[in-house]
Amino acid sequence: MKLAVIPARGGSKRIPRKNIKAFCGKPMIAWSIEAALQSGCFDQVIVSTDDQEIAEVARQYGASVPFMRPAELSDDYTGTIPVIQQAIEWCRADGFDARQVCCLYATAPFVSPVDLRRGLDILEQTGSQYAFSVTSYAFPIQRAIRLTEAGRVEMFSPEHFNTRSQDLEESYHDAGQFYWGQASAWLEGKMIFSPESSAVLLPRHRVQDIDTPEDWVRAEWLYKAFQAESSQQ
């Protein structure tokens, strides 16, 4: 059986009430819930939250909230893996024995049902412990620079100063949308970024980290541009 877990605690600091703040006409979390339901991948879609208002919004959009997340897993320092572990263990105790579990972030309005299905296919076909969304860096990380305390610059990799960009290895980063995993991998606390994981490659234009008000505005502009383009096709 396959389970989607959408972590959504209530204590967002940089963007208050981020998980249920209106994004292009509906609560942010609704985009993730609807993508999960439309993907057809899951036997159950649950939201893990400590917040009653978030729980109510989640139910309105079709997710279940069978438990409230305990306070010890709802602070600023709790990682993703313990939250997913708790959800799996709760579901198993309730008779739902999930074998593949997808952690889907509540602030991923560009997540696609097609990509969720691709992630499941990659997980199953490769025999990986995890399969998660990634995208490429727009600029070679080998030519990155840092600012010194004196306000000067220096390269992280000065040996690549004269290397042509096209000769540098392409690099990728976590897209922050979803993480498919074997239930056993989650429960054992295996690292997600490891050789036992596979990548679900997304185009850069469909990846947006939303951590600040500026990120939020940019993401809405981008989403509206997608809608405008679709209406012209």
Automatic annotation (TrEMBL):
Report what the protein is called.
Answer: N-acylneuraminate cytidylyltransferase
Listed InterPro entries: CMP-NeuNAc_synthase, Cytidylyl_trans, Nucleotide-diphossugar_trans, PseF
NCBIfam families (UniProt xref) = PseF
Q: Which organism is it from?
A: Pseudomonas kilonensis
| Keyword check for Nucleotidyltransferase | yes
Keyword flag Transferase: yes
UniProt KW keywords? Nucleotidyltransferase, Transferase
Which Pfam families does this chain map to? CTP_transf_3
**What's a Gene Ontology MF term here?**
nucleotidyltransferase activity
Alphabetized SUPFAM superfamilies for the sequence = Nucleotide-diphospho-sugar transferases (SSF53448)
